[in-house]
Structures are given as structure tokens and as C-alpha cells.
Amino acid sequence: MELGAPGRPRTSYWNIADTMPDYLDSYENAVKPVPSTIPELDDLIKGGFRPGIHFIGGNTGAGKTALCLWMAHRMASMTDEETGQPTGVTIISLELSAAEVRARMGSRLSKHLEGLQPFAWADFEEHGAECKAKIASGTYNPDDDPVYCADLELVSRCPNMRIVDNIANSKANDLACILNEIQMTGAAGGRVCFVDYLQCIDAGFGLDETEAMKEAVRKINLAGIRYGVAVIVIAAVNRAKGSEMRNSKKGENPGADIFRGSSWIEYTGLTAMALVRHKNARKTRNYVEVELCLVKNRRGTFGEPIELAYDGAHGDFVTWDEVTN
After folding, report:
1. 320 is in which domain, residue-wise?
2. Sorting pLDDT into bands at 50, 70 and 90, what band is 10?
């Protein structure tokens, strides 16, 4: 028996042989994953993030949002091997304004780039008030403005970055809008989309939290695969699990059941990660030790937790060895 719409080639009902050319085309033109910019993590997930949904959770104060912004900035500063252009990255912030997102990334740049005056992102409003007063008095010099100078560097280094926030766009948390942003990211040659965070998404009228999360996770994953975009989503953890993570021993893997409504996250995610800040975490200078643990990995094992050092004042991460050696 042959099937097919008028004017289209007919294939057999049992069509695995008929679709072999499509399979070989996918094989020969497979798109490389986007590196996470953390070498130890990329080794575990076989090169980086692939199209589909990935999750990051963690206990309070571990730096989940900061980690995502840190990775987003570093990814957007890299040249995409597929396009030869800076990597296209979309950030969908459902809690922070676009201005705060930029301030946090600029703060990190101000700390690391020679010639920039370091500033803490929490001082953004204070610097803004000083800027306004100096403009009014005619004494403003942009070269002396730490926020402005850092933002110039951010724009220069990350030309293919897009920030969407729920403050400026009240519909940004609608699932339909998020799916559209994923589609548009892929259509514009982008490779990565960050969503902060899952429990803020409005998936439809009349759904309880579990149903809404299930709908969001399923549709975001399909959109990411369909449009070639790795979607990295911050997800809340259960309060009890967050406390357990804080009080756990160093090196322990907290497991994939840490997330609120974890069954669909465990089932759907290509990868899931937990960022853990222990109660007695080591500290040095402005850094505190945190551990990044893989709790789901479709392409390999969990490996050992990755030891990172987190500077909350500047939204900065480095390896623990870098700050202690």
C-alpha cells in the first residue's frame, strides 16, 4: 500500500528505508552543541548544551540567576562555530528588569577588564543618581562613569544578545510569548535561550502549578528541539530539599528530585543541574565556595561536583582552584 498527498512523492506505510536520506542528512549536518564555558561540565555532557530543555536549581543564595547570566555573557562573547559570528543568546527574565540584568553583567566585566572602574551591581541606582546630578551640573564625563563604560564593553563583546523582561513587557511570562521568543531566536541564528524562571511562567488559565509546569516544560522542550535552541531554565527547588542541600556534606549529589514538581523535570530535561551552597562553605576574599552538581545527564554520568567560587557582589564565578592558588 502506498500513501501520499496529491503531487507529493509516495512512500510505503513502513517507511524507515524511505526516510534514510533525511536521516543521513541529519547525521552529516549535525549541529555542534554550545559549550557551557565550564570545561568540566562540557566534558560530562559531551561538548555542551543541545537543542531542548535544560534545568538549573539550587538552594537560596547559591547564585542560580548569577550563574546563568555569567554563562550567557560568556557564551555571547564566543564565536559560534556554526555561523562564524558571535553566539546568539536570548535572556528571558521574568523577575529582574533588563536594566538589572545588564547591570549585573556589566558589574562582572568592570571587575575583570583592565581600564574599567569596578562597581557592585547593587550600587546601580547610586551610580545612576550621581550620573543624573553631574549631567544637570554640566560636570558629567562618560569616561568616568563605571556603569556606562562597562555597558559599552558588554555591547561590544555580546552584539547578538537579546534581553526580554516581564517588567517592560507584561506578557513576557505567557508561555505563548516564550515559545515565540525561542522560535525567533532560532530564526535569527541564535543558539541559546535562558529563562528565569519556570514557576513564573503563565501556561494557561485554570491550570494548577503542577499542570502549568508540565505544559510549559513539554512545550518549551519541543520548541527548543524544533528550532535548534538550547533552552536553559531556572527552576525552584522544594523548600525541604533546599534545606537538605544547605546542610549536606560536601561532594554529595542531591539528586533530581530537588525540584518543585520534579517528575516532569526529571523526565523531560536533557540535563539538570543543582547549584549547592553548603552551610559551612569555605570563603576567601569576596568569594564563597559552591558546587555545581549534574543530577540528570542523558549523555553520560554525573561525575564529581564541580567546585566553583561565587562573588555575589559582582555576579562572578571562577573555579575554586583559581582563587586559592
Report:
1. 33-97+162-324
2. low
